[in-house]
Amino acid sequence: MIRVLLFAHLQEKVGKESINIEKNTITVKDIREYMSLTYELGSLENVMVAVNEEYALDDDIVQAGDVVAFIPPVSGG
Prior knowledge:
By secondary structure, the chain is α+β, with helices and mostly antiparallel strands. It is built from two helices and seven strands; from the N terminus they run E-H-E-E-H-E-E-E-E. It is 23% helix and 34% strand.
């Protein structure tokens, strides 16, 4: 199982702080696509992804037991 943490508007849209994906291995890109389609989040290209607290690239492999964080861009004043 892979735990995905959600922040800001992603958390509000999904209605949860985190979700679990029942996979042993998957790429970051595949997680982006799964999240976008399953939770109707639209494009997640601008969202930073961290795996086990380190920023990750789309072709990085995520394994069972890893924690993935989806960090959307934040603007402020």
